[in-house]
Automatic annotation (TrEMBL):
The keyword Cell membrane does not apply. One of its GO terms (biological process) is siderophore biosynthetic process. InterPro entries: AMP-bd_C, AMP-bd_C_sf, AMP-binding_CS, AMP-dep_synth/lig_dom, ATP-dep_AMP-bd_enzyme, DHB_AMP_lig. Coiled coil: none annotated. Residues 430-507 form the AMP-binding enzyme C-terminal domain. GO terms for molecular function: 2,3-dihydroxybenzoate--[aryl-carrier protein] ligase. This is 2,3-dihydroxybenzoate-AMP ligase. Keywords: Ligase. Pathway: Siderophore biosynthesis. Residues 25-379 form the AMP-dependent synthetase/ligase domain. Belongs to the ATP-dependent AMP-binding enzyme family.
Amino acid sequence: MWPEDFAARYREKGYWIGQTFDDLLRESAAAFADRVAIVSGEQRITYRELRNRASRLAAGLYARGIRPGDRVVVQLPNVPEFFDVIFALFRIGALPVFALPAHRSAEIGYFRSHTSAVAFITMDVYDGFDHRSLAGDGLTIVAGDPGGFIALDTLYSDGPLPTGPKPSDLAFLQLSGGSTGLPKLIPRTHDDYLYSVRASAQICRLNQDSAYLVALPVAHNFTMSSPGVLGVLHTGGTVVLSTTPDPATAFPLISAESVTITALVPPLALVWLDAADRTKPDLSSLETLQVGGAKLLDSVAERIRPALGCRLQQVFGMAEGLVNYTRLDDPDDVVLHSQGRPISPDDEIRIVDDEDSDVPDGTVGHLLTRGPYTIRGYWNADDHNKVAFTEDGFYRTGDLVRRLPGGYLVVEGRAKDQINRGGEKIAAEEVEDHLLTHPAVHDAAVVGIPDEYLGERSCAFVVVKPGVRVPKLSEIRAHLRDRGLAAYKIPDRLRVVERFPVTGVGKTSRRELRTLLRELITTSKG
Ligand code: OOB
């Protein structure tokens, strides 16, 4: 957590105003009572109703034994129950651990054990997968058909509630894309997160007439807070839920609900552009398309206004904190060719070389950051924190950036061992650890290879044990699926090699090895 002098400064400057998530919902329910907060299919939920639902669910969860400080793994897609659940947990002061719908037993099991979670809240079946199969120890609460577990529906009730959390308390644990073995959890407080939400809402000029389409998974940091659904609920606008980002669903929703703003990752922006060129939809209400999560190519950025008739806003953020936006009135050159500038005047940015010395503006270096909504450490990860943060508390983002005049950043690459598969983050080491459990695999290295559509795809390099049959890609994939790994982490390609290349001195770090292998595959076009 932040040292006291920093915390005092952030309060004094009015960033941390002493607001909790429950305060936010109460204030919005008072100010915008009969306005529509959430639209999902035929369902329209007003602010007043949302607050009532969340309070009643809080009472029900409390009656089931969920207490302040308890961790609860939440895995819900874009459904209204997501809001009831998170605001109910916030009201109790229990911490949601945000999983994505794509996560499977490997991830969910780890979140549960790493956080000693007391409950798992999920849906019945989504995208052809039965999420009840992920149930483990502790309570399993299901939205939809409970199949023998606790039905979320039955928990809404009247009953006592504990005193709520303090604004400086942890509010939830968000996931890190990670670059090392196991995913890291990001502890965010009410104070720090809500500052980023309010400031983002202002930067994006949200108001009561804003309608935000949730096309990406609602539990991702981008969708939740940049300015996302929380920014909208803070300003009295309407959250429009889509179960899929597919243009066939999203385009009609945009015109039916007069959507003004939405957020996409670059590959989806490309899908929307192609679909719009073909189908000429009515997107006249759409004012802003935010694109972030991975680098947007200039050529794609340039097509957005002509094809969709709205302005582009680039968003370069991270669940650890720092979020950069191009501003709505920035000149085209900045909007098309930079990833924006930080939210806060107190976001400290350093761009450094390999020795941690600052580089001059315009030179590419490692991005380090510290500020009023950037964490000072991962949850229960003391050893990792020593490398992921500097001694004076700067977060080492692992991103390579260059600074333009005005403080705008251009993302030029990445130094962390992570693959960014169209915005979905894959830690090379996590997948390698799973590959090593395959009976034929002697050693494994996973690298990102350039891909026209996703930006990157993943390729597993494998050294096979002597005397065993060389496994096929389909077998490797099936093995990882059986281990319960999320589909997006399963390698797209497989390259079997006799041995791994070594550097001049004969020794190779995993990072150098990955670089060598990446070069091998990009030069051989294999
Ligand atoms: C967002 O958050 P995460 O935690 O899934 O991923 C963060 C990482 C960054 O460190 C960077 O490597 C990459 O994703 N990234 C971008 C980018 N936005 C994120 N790389 C290039 N250009 C961009 N515009 O992805 C996230 C969180 C909040 C808002 C938006 C995105």
